[in-house]
C-alpha cells in the first residue's frame, strides 16, 4: 500500500521556521519525484517545491526561492521541506506528492500519490 505521511506543520509567527517531513512507503522511492504543494482556502493548489529522488535535482516556486529548502534522505524514504522566514501568505495546507516521470513539477496532475496534508499557519 502506497503511503505518504506529512508531519511538522503548526502555528508559527512571521519570520519563524518550520520543517515539514514526508515519509513515503509502498513504492520504489528512488524512481519518483517528490513534490510539495500547498492550498490556501479559496485558492488553487500551488506547486511549492520538488526534488528528484534519483538525481537530486530541485525546483522551487518563485514565491519561496531563498526561503524554503527541499532535501531527501533516500535511506529513510523521507523528503523534508525546511521553511524559513515564513510569511502570513505561506499559510496553507501543505501536501506532499509522488510522481514518476514528472516533467512539469508544479502541475498537480503529474503526480500519482498524495498525502493527507499538514496545516501550516503563520501569524502576523
Order of helices and strands: EEEEEEEEEEE
Alpha-carbon Rg, integer: 13 Å
Q: Any idea what the shape is?
A: globular
Instruction: Average the pLDDT over all residues and give the rounded result.
Output: 96
- The overall strand count is 11
Low-confidence segments, ≥5 residues, pLDDT <50? none
List the total number of helices. Answer: 0
Give the oligomeric state: single chain
Helix content: under 10%
Which structural class do you get from the secondary structure elements? mainly beta
Largest sheet: 7 strands, mixed
Query: Cα distance, first to last residue?
Result: 40 Å
SS strand fraction = over 45%
Keywords for this structure?
globular, 4-stranded antiparallel sheet, 124 residues, single chain, mainly beta, 0% helix, 7-stranded mixed sheet
Structure description:
Strands 2, 4, 5, 6, 9, 10 and 11 form a 7-stranded mixed β-sheet that branches. The chain contains no helices and 11 strands. The protein is mainly beta and 124 residues long. It has strands at 3-7, 10-13, 18-25, 33-39, 46-52, 58-60, 68-73, 78-83, 92-99, 113-114, 118-123.
SSE blueprint and pairings:
Layout: E1 3-7, E2 10-13, E3 18-25, E4 33-39, E5 46-52, E6 58-60, E7 68-73, E8 78-83, E9 92-99, E10 113-114, E11 118-123
Parallel strand pairs: 2-11
Antiparallel strand pairs: 1-3, 3-8, 4-5, 4-9, 5-6, 7-8, 9-10, 9-11
Short description:
With 124 residues, the chain is an all-beta fold. It has no helices and eleven strands. The chain is globular, with a radius of gyration of 13 Å.
Amino acid at each position: 500500500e502506497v503511503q505518504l505521511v506529512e508531519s511538522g506543520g503548526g502555528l508559527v509567527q512571521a519570520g519563524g521556521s518550520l520543517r515539514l517531513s514526508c515519509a513515503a512507503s509502498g513504492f520504489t522511492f528512488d524512481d519518483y519525484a517528490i513534490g510539495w504543494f500547498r492550498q490556501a482556502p479559496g485558492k488553487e493548489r500551488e506547486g511549492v517545491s520538488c526534488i528528484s529522488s534519483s538525481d537530486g535535482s530541485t525546483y522551487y516556486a518563485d514565491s519561496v526561492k531563498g526561503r524554503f529548502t527541499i532535501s531527501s534522505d533516500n535511506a529513510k524514504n523521507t523528503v523534508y521541506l525546511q521553511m524559513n522566514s515564513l510569511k502570513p501568505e505561506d499559510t496553507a495546507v501543505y501536501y506532499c506528492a509522488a510522481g514518476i516521470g514528472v516533467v512539469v513539477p508544479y502541475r498537480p496532475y503529474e503526480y500519482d500519490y498524495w498525502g493527507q496534508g499538514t496545516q501550516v499557519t503563520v501569524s502576523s
